[in-house]
Design a protein that fits this description.
The chain has about 80 residues and is mostly helical. The protein has one domain. The protein has four helices and no strands. The longest helix has 16 residues. It is extended.
């Protein structure tokens, strides 16, 4: 199996993906410029297996359910766009 095949199979191991998601979430929370802006939902370990990945509702998820495009603040767009620059 080549490198692409190994990486593809690795993506299907949700125990590993759960660990990756947790590392990403913690890394973003540790950055003052990104904390609360870039995030990932917490992994629900008790409801996850190698073939099922279950996440909770993190900050981003609750933000999305509270705000609709009608209530979008234009200043937010610039703030989030600057993260990609």
């Amino acid at each position: 199996m080549d490198e692409w095949g190994r990486r593809f199979v690795d993506e299907l191991d949700y125990v590993q993906e759960a660990a990756n998601g947790e590392r990403f979430r913690l890394a973003m929370e540790s950055r003052p410029d990104l904390a609360g802006v870039v995030t990932a939902p917490p992994v629900e370990r008790g409801a996850s297996t190698r073939r099922v990945l279950t996440t909770g509702r993190g900050h981003a998820m609750s933000w999305m359910t509270r705000r609709t495009p009608v209530h979008h603040v234009v200043d937010d767009t610039a703030r989030y766009a600057n993260l990609c620059a």
